[in-house]
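Internal tracking record. Fields below are filled automatically when a chain is submitted to the structure queue. Please do not edit lines marked as system-generated. If the sequence contains nonstandard residues, flag them in the REMARKS field before resubmitting.
Queue: standard
Priority: normal
Entity type: single polypeptide chain
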Amino acid sequence: MSLTPPVREEYEIPLAPLPGLVLERRFSLPQRIWQQAWIRKGAILLLLAIAWEAFGRWQNNDLLLPTFGQTAQAFVDGIASGELFGKTWLSLQVLLKAYVLGIAAAFVLTTLAVSTQFGRDLLSTLTSMFNPLPAIALLPIALLWFGLGQGSLIFVLVHSVLWALAVNTYAGFLGVSDTLRMAGRNYGLGGLSFVLQVLVPAALPSILAGLRIGWAFAWRTLIAAELVFGATSGKGGLGWYIFQNRNELYTDKVFAGLAMVILIGLLVENLVFNTLERVTVKRWGMQR
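SYSTEM-GENERATED OUTPUT FOLLOWS
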């Protein structure tokens, strides 16, 4: 009995091209325009503005709800006079200081957590205690400790940024594969160099998510805090601008201030975080 496999004659069947088959997908000009994300988002904003204008005209009470046109006029007047821009810049200065401090504190905590058991226990305990605690609830204590100034605002804003970023960053570090960890160890990396060169790039999607959440928490906490006690170092920010105009019954200016809050959020989301995602995690194939 022969164990030699039977010899099979190789052959090739040529395939004729299918007639009329178009392999290239072609879009019409309206379809190509609609593929642009900013066009779609702009259309959504336009529909919301139209609905706002229509409801405001139907409601016909400027004190309760000014129309979109009246709000836009108040917004333009506030920018032209420099008042609205100045208030916004004061708020953003405080926010950026607190945001940087929160990022630094979160990095220290998460680095300690991935390096030692004590760090893991510390991060777990602190996040369980303080993450559910609203930042604005710490404002009375901050006022006692730091007085009516930027120190109080920075204290509550760091609280807003720190825990959201620390939780997301640590979760991203835990999700790094063992293969990458062993590769880093084989190159002799350890401690801070291991965190910066292996864990941070691998966990970047989670870190960016934490940065985005921390920014949103800090921005709305800042506006709420300024609404409560207003002035920072003798000067009022955007929240104080909204509060003052509410007291003086300038409802169109109140909505103009709220529009500025929304506009800053849209700009930061689309120009900062989306750009960071596009040049990092999406470019590297880590995120769709």
